[in-house]
């Protein structure tokens, strides 16, 4: 039986750990040809050992030349791109008054500008035959709760998703995003916080996540498979919330 993404060419930024690795695994299991990028060679090697026959690229997404070079290498190896998942990102900073302008800029570089650049490069390839771009944002791009640096950058990425979605759909390129709630995985922030203070984290879950537990990477990966699929063909510029009910938005 043929698999849902047989032969599709998929690039996942930040694919060596956590959510990105889960997404890489999911596409690979569905028959896709997968490339992942991250900074640490060691992390890439471990991910490849775990997932299987994938391509890996050492790349810091905040460096313009490394983005261009890596994307070019991916295209040369794969002969094109069908699906781009902009997953790389991370949270930094603290209270606004205590956070330097450099930190605000760095957050935009890490979470936003690089995803815009990868999307633009992917669009140039996809505009002839269509494709899908999936941005991993956050519920904290939609509502208050996280650090301002992170919220700002994720809100910008949600806004970019809508703008690029509307602009590129005429060429068959669908751009959408997933806004995860709190996702637990071994190398992530929530795991660290559970180790530091398990009781506080139990209370956090009880008070904040109606489903009564953290989400897992497979649950975000399933949303990514859906957004990349034909079944989501009418979803354009939208942001899917995947959070066990955690976010507080009514509309
Ligand atoms: P992790 O920190 O566990 O993994 C991040 C991945 O991105 C790693 O592969 C890391 O590898 C890579 N990465 C980080 N910075 C860079 C960089 N500058 N250049 C290239 N690669 C980079 O994060 P999560 O899996 O938890 O999160 C993934 C995405 O999901 C992020 O965008 C995050 O904001 C978002 N998200 C996460 C939530 C959660 O609860 N976990 C909730 C909502 C959104 P390396 O360090 O080797 O570069």
Automatic annotation (TrEMBL):
It comes from the Bacteria. One of its GO terms (biological process) is bile acid metabolic process. GO terms for molecular function: oxidoreductase activity, acting on the CH-OH group of donors, NAD or NADP as acceptor. It holds the Pfam family adh_short_C2. Keywords: Oxidoreductase. The keyword Oxidoreductase applies. Belongs to the short-chain dehydrogenases/reductases (SDR) family. This is 3-oxoacyl-[acyl-carrier protein] reductase.
């Amino acid at each position: 039986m043929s698999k849902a993404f047989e032969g599709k060419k998929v690039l996942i930024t930040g694919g060596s750990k956590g959510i990105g690795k889960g997404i890489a695994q999911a596409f690979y299991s569905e028959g896709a040809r997968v490339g992942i990028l991250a900074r640490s060679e060691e992390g890439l090697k471990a991910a490849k050992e775990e997932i299987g026959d994938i391509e890996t690229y050492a790349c810091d997404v905040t460096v313009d030349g490394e983005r261009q070079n890596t994307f070019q290498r991916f295209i040369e190896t794969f002969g094109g791109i069908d699906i781009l998942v902009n997953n790389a990102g991370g949270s930094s900073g603290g209270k606004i008054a205590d956070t330097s302008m450099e930190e605000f800029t760095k957050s935009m570089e890490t979470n936003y500008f690089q995803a815009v650049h990868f999307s633009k490069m992917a669009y140039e390839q996809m505009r002839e035959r269509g494709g899908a771009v999936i941005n991993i944002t956050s519920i904290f791009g939609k509502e208050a709760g996280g650090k301002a640096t992170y919220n700002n950058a994720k809100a910008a990425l949600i806004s970019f998703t809508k703008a690029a979605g509307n602009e590129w759909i005429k060429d068959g390129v669908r751009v959408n995003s997933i806004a995860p709630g709190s996702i637990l995985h071994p190398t992530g922030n929530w795991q660290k916080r559970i180790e530091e203070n398990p009781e506080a984290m139990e209370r956090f879950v009880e008070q904040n996540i109606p489903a009564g537990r953290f989400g897992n990477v497979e649950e975000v990966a399933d949303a990514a498979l859906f957004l990349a699929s034909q079944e989501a063909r009418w979803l354009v510029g939208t942001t899917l919330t995947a959070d066990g009910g955690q976010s507080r938005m009514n509309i």
